[in-house]
Structures are given as C-alpha cells and as structure tokens.
Amino acid sequence: MPLAETNPTSLAYCLEAACMTHRGNVRKKNEDAMLCGTVRHGITMEEPESPGAKIGPPWTVAVADGIGGNLAGERASHETVEYLAQLKDFSKEQLRDALLCLNDKLQDMGEKEPEMHGMGTTIAGLACGSEGLMVYHLGDSRVYRIQGDYLAPLTRDDSVAEMLRGQNEFPVDTLPASIRRALTQCLGGKFNEEDIKPHFLGLQIRKPTRFLLCTDGLSESISHDELEKICTASGSLFEITESLMHTVLEGKAKDNITIILAEVSPLGDSA
C-alpha cells in the first residue's frame, strides 16, 4: 500500500531493535548506512547489534542505500543518517525539512566535487516524536509491519516498476532489471530536476508491534513469502535478524544488505 498523508497519533512509544549490515557476497564495499541508536556505515557486521535498552521518544531508526560510483554512494548514505541523528524532534514538518535540505546538500556536493557527481541515496525510516509514530520514505528501501502471520508493506517503491504497474496491464516483469529497478525519486542523484516529494505515514498501535526496515539487498534477494515466514516466526529480535541475513547470504546475495528489526511499544497518551 502506498504511503498516505495522514495525521499521526499523539501517543508516545518506546523502541527496542536489532540491526545488521553486510556488503553481500559480490560487492567489495558496503554503500549502505543505518541509524539504529548510533550511525553505522560502510561496514560488514558478522552478528546483529542493538542500540541497548528500550529507547523512549524522540527517536528514529533508518536505513539508507547509497547511489553513485567510487565513494559517492557510501558518502551520500552516511551524510544522510548522520544528519538525521542530529535532529531534536521527528515531527512530519521537521523530517520533511530535513529531507529537502539533504537533497539540496547532496546535489551541491555532487556539483562541487567531481568524484561525487550523481551521489544520492534512498531513505526509509520509522520515527516517534512530538506528533507520534510515523514512517518516512524515498526510493526503494522499505518498511514493513509484522501483523500476526503477515508481513504488510508500509512503503511503495519510488521505481519505474511501481510507476508502470497497473497501467494498462503493462508487463512490468518483462522489463530488464536495470530499467525495472530504476528509481524515480531519491535524495540527491543526478535526475532530481524537480523537488522531491517525501512520503509520510502516521501510525497508531495499541500493543507491542514489530517493524522491518531494509534496503533492497534484502527485499530483492528473497521472495515475499520467505521473508514473511522468517519475520513472523517465533524468536527474539536478534534471532530473526540473524536468520534474515543468513538466508540472504546463503542465496548468493549480490547487493549490500541492511536490516533493522524494531519492536515498538506504546507508553500511553503523551498529554
């Protein structure tokens, strides 16, 4: 389901999470970055980590998939999560302003530094601030909600495939992967001639709920059914995160993979 412009809940929520990032089996470097308690970028983790004990608001967790040759992609994703880590609140207005500012910053850096030309990144995050719980998103990194035996997508990719899907029954799956997976929006990049339009979705939950955030190194390397089966199995945040990464790496993952498995619990009305 696509992200809708909705009014976030006024409830406050706390966070527990496990996270892991890996360069995959083919790439020589990891251009993904994430914010999960602290910023992690350009590394390969052999086991999941946690931001520690339950975190109260304001907080955000986010994954970013860098775009661009040489070090440009890694720099773009790192700059993005570092910027988000400095925010004091995570209202829709503040997040929108931050993403617009980041878009301008990355484009300026790409113009001034030739080796950074075309630098860009996706972003997918879950946040709790003064306006409650919300998802924010640009590109093809994703956020899912785990509901019983189901894994429900909360984001819709900004990609050519999603743009064409459903248009006169266009055979999207017959397109070459390079075209099908091409982005229609991201932060920075060399094709953002118009202002970006970040997506936001306000959420309200009444009981502890798990969410999966991931870059396309996970979502493109495993079927939805298998992803759902692993995410809905019994197990700790650490166990499921490790199982996801192990499954993808066993499948000869070609891309960088970044995973955050978050459990969000209501604290009650913040008023």
Question: What does this 3D model show about the protein?
Answer:
This protein has 271 residues and is of the alpha+beta class. The protein is built from seven helices and 13 strands. It has helices at residues 72-85, 92-112, 160-164, 177-180, 216-219, 224-231, 237-250, and strands spanning 11-22, 32-36, 38-41, 59-67, 120-121, 123-129, 132-138, 142-147, 150-153, 187-188, 199-203, 209-214, 257-269. The strands form two sheets. Strands 2, 3, 4, 5, 6, 7, 10 and 11 form an eight-stranded antiparallel beta sheet that branches. Helix 1 (72-85) packs antiparallel against helix 2 (92-112). Mean pLDDT is 89; it is low at 1-9.
Number of helices, where a helix is a run of at least 4 consecutive DSSP H or I residues = 7
Poorly predicted tracts of residues: 1-9
Total DSSP E strands: 13
Q: Tell me about the largest β-sheet.
A: 8 strands, antiparallel
Distance N terminus to C terminus? 31 Å
Decide which structural class fits the backbone.
alpha+beta
Rounded mean pLDDT score? 89
SSE pattern: EEEEHHEEEEEHHEEEHHHE
**Radius of gyration over all CA atoms, rounded:** 17 Å
Provide the fold topology:
Layout: E1 11-22, E2 32-36, E3 38-41, E4 59-67, H1 72-85, H2 92-112, E5 120-121, E6 123-129, E7 132-138, E8 142-147, E9 150-153, H3 160-164, H4 177-180, E10 187-188, E11 199-203, E12 209-214, H5 216-219, H6 224-231, H7 237-250, E13 257-269
Antiparallel strand pairs: 1-13, 2-3, 2-4, 4-5, 4-6, 5-10, 6-7, 7-11, 8-9, 8-12, 12-13
Helix pairs in contact: 1-2
